[in-house]
Every structure is written in structure tokens, then in C-alpha cells.
User: Fold these one by one.
Assistant:
Number 1:
Amino acid sequence: DAGITQSPRHKVTETGTPVTLRCHQTENHRYMYWYRQDPGHGLRLIHYSYGVKDTDKGEVSDGYSVSRSKTEDFLLTLESATSSQTSVYFCAIRGQGDGYTFGSGTRLTVV
Amino acid sequence: KQEVTQIPAALSVPEGENLVLNCSFTDSAIYNLQWFRQDPGKGLTSLLLIQSSQREQTSGRLNASLDKSSGRSTLYIAASQPGDSATYLCAVNFGNEKLTFGTGTRLTIIP
């Protein structure tokens, strides 16, 4: 399996503060993704990247931005966190055979 | 709109029984389909990946089938065990660079 790590694993932050989540991969895959998972909604795509500095929006991108300055790192930023952004965030890479591998997730609580 | 549906949302079966989980999708022009397992509070573990040109894939006690013409996939679990208890997610790549997920079936195996 591709090495994919997310940090932090848990975070509690206050409304209105900026937050950055990090996804790191070790196998040089081109495509990386950020999803959020919420009860009743399943996993929904926030943003994805198809190369360094190449990113695009998913279905729930409002309030989020991303950056990819190196192949191995994909950052998700909440510019001004809101309670509606309390969720579990998963990073994924698209690997061999175009199958996806997911990280362990970041549990974010906005209070 | 491209959608993925999993019914039922929850299923309980006695240990040792064979069972089938269902996944349906709205667009038959898929690229591939992937089944995942998620334990409570954990990330997603890939179980099986079926390419558009394939009819089924097998791994141990698991068998996944794909019928594009009817927009359906099934995940067959043989000789169920309590350790199989988890939420099973179906995800479809409709060829647009990202996965679309169903909301999952929560499986409980009763000892």
C-alpha cells in the first residue's frame, strides 16, 4: 500500500481561526484528494490535485482552499473555521490500477 | 446526476451465514468500482477494485461482481465472522477524476 499520512489526527479549534491539515504521501502519485465524512452524507469531495500546483474543486469546496507545492504534500486550509466544518477529513491518493488509498483521517472539532 | 446508492443502510446476520451487500449506480459508463471497509472511528480499507472491463474480483472470502448494464455491484461475504462487522462502502469512478461514494451498509455479525 502507498504510504499516506495525515496530520494532525485530532484538532479542536475556535470559530473564526484558520486551520491547515496536511496529507503526505511517499510514493510519488500524481492524484491526491481531500474528502470530508459526515453522518447522513457519506464521503464528499472537497478538492483534489492532479499535479504540483494543479488543483480543482469538488462538490463541497466553499470555505476551503488547497495547495500542492510538492508532489508528496497536499494541504487543506480552512480560512476561517465554522461549526459546520466540524467533520472527519480524509486524504486519498489514486494509485496502482487507479484504485484509491485513504489516510487514517483527521477529526476536526470547531467550537 | 451521478449517484451511488447502498441499500440497506444496516444489516444483521448470524455468524457463519453467507451474505450479499448491494450497490447501485446511475450511470453505466463507469471507469471502475471499489469496495471499502470502515471500522468505527477508523479510516477506509480497500477490499476489492473492479475495472470496467471486469465482471468480478475475489479476495479470500470476499467476491465482488459488476453488472454495468443494470448499474449494480454486489459484495458477497462467505461464512461470515464477527470480525466482519463494519461499515461497507461502495465507491464509483465515473471517469471524471474522482470517486463518488454510497452512504454505506453497516454490517453486524451476531455470534
Note: Chain B has a mean pLDDT of 95.
Number 2:
Amino acid sequence: KQEVTQIPAALSVPEGENLVLNCSFTDSAIYNLQWFRQDPGKGLTSLLLIQSSQREQTSGRLNASLDKSSGRSTLYIAASQPGDSATYLCAIETSGSRLTFGEGTQLTVNP
Amino acid sequence: GAVVSQHPSRVICKSGTSVKIECRSLDFQATTMFWYRQFPKQSLMLMATSNEGSKATYEQGVEKDKFLINHASLTLSTLTVTSAHPEDSSFYICSAGDRVNDNEKLFFGSGTQLSVL
């Protein structure tokens, strides 16, 4: 059974700082890995999707890496802004579009 | 881009009543939709896979008679929480996949916060 762990559970940083969120998973037989953003009481917004054959994806100030052999992924956020404050979720997709989520990292960027 | 609409966004009900949550794909057809539940400070947990025109597939530990799923069309799936109790209070989110050029991207609804008194 796939298990997804995210570290840290919460992170508070000053505006402008670069930061890294971590995700680890137990079963390397994955279809892809996604990073999502969730605002309080809201749905999910997909940030980056890395196919199992890829090693990283970039979108603006976000960069996500994937190391299947070690079962790890990182989400790098450059020059953080208060608007980046949210919960970030890592999810592993196995066959049939089924997602297994980590418990998330709650990020607070202080002005 | 593709949009998944979920209603209602918030429901407060008395114990014993049934609550229906709707999930609609607005710009695309989805043969499969997914229902997740999220308790406070916890991860999203897949409850069931909703298949258009056939019975839903439930995850282990999820009571199919408690959480009724209907996927009668390619754009609508409904989740009914029957005889809701306070322990059913949770955040429920649906998702649907839009396949473009052999790549399927999942889109999520905005979620439904259910509070059972």
C-alpha cells in the first residue's frame, strides 16, 4: 500500500525567502506525482505534475523534482510571497487516476 | 480550462438527515469521477470511484450504503450521505479527469464542508 509523507507539517518564513517542501513515498511504482495547493476550506489547485519518467518540472517560481529510486520529491518555492501562504499537498497517482495524498505542509509567508 | 463545479459549498444539518452533494464537469465529459474526504488536519482520503452508468467502486472501510454515489451522466456525479451523524462531519471533495492527447489531468471541485449537529 502506497504511503505518502510530507515534511515539515508546518513552515513559517519571512517574505522573500526561498524554501523547500519535502515529500516521500513508499512504493516507487507510480504513474506520476503532483503537487497541489489548498487554501482554507477550498478545493485543490494543481501546481505541477511530474510524470514517472521525468525528473523535474518548473512553473514560474516553483520547481518540483522527482527521484523515484529514493521515493522522494521536493517542491522548491523561490522568493516566497504572502500570497503563497496555503497548504501544499503531494499526491501520488497510481493506475486508474487514483491519488494517494500526503498530509500536507501548511506554509505561512510573513510580510 | 476545464472546471469542476461542486455544490453546495457548506451544509449544516441535523443528525439523521440525508445530504446530497453534486459534482459537475462543466467543460468536458468525465466517465470517471472521484470522491475524497478530508478530516481537519488530515490528508484527503479516497472514498470511492464513481463510474458513469455503473456501480461505484468503494475503498476499503467506506460503507456503500452510507455513502450513495450516482453517476447518471457524463457530467454529473452525486454523493448522498444517508442518515448523517456528527462523525460524518468532514470536508468532501470531488475530482474528474479530462483526457487531452492521451494525457489525463485531474480537476478538483471546491469542496463541501459538512457539519452534522
Note: The longest strand of chain B covers residues 90-100.
